[in-house]
Design brief:
The chain is built from eight helices and no strands. It has 139 residues and is mainly α. It has one domain.
């Protein structure tokens, strides 16, 4: 029986490790990188487990880098749900984040993208939305 060659770590693997241990440079952790990491968790673990793992690691990460005030529960979950929808309904198996984002570049747009169109700014700016997931207000 021949041994399987060891799988070489990919740049995505290295980013996940750095994210999970808190060594990822916060200056490199852009919105795009947030979504890419979340995409990796959802692909690997599915929903809801991948979403829960991403959220837990994100909270740990922001605590390690001293950026707890930047964490936003509603925005985090809203993007996780949008990414999961894309993964389950429109993405071929194993699709890369880069390929998906070419189809859905509006996910990178905070000002006019799907979150901004779904939520009122006043709702997202509220302290409640930062600490508890809120559905978009219907008023």
């Amino acid at each position: 029986m021949s041994a399987q060659p060891a799988r070489q770590p990919t740049p995505v693997d290295e980013i996940l490790v750095a994210f999970e241990n808190g060594s990822l440079d916060p200056a490199r952790f852009s919105h795009r990188q947030h979504l890419s990491v979340a995409w990796s968790y959802l692909q690997r673990d599915g929903f809801p487990e991948g979403a829960l793992q991403f959220r837990r690691h994100l909270q740990n990460y922001v605590a390690k880098v001293g950026a707890e005030g930047k964490y936003h529960e509603t925005i985090t979950w809203a993007y996780l749900v949008l990414l999961n929808e894309e993964l389950c309904l429109r993405s071929p198996a194993g699709e890369s984040f880069d390929a998906m984002i070419q189809r859905r570049p509006e996910l990178l747009d905070h000002r006019n993208g799907p979150i901004a169109r779904s939520y009122r700014k006043s709702q997202l700016d509220s302290p409640e939305a930062r600490c508890v997931f809120m559905l978009p207000a219907t008023e």
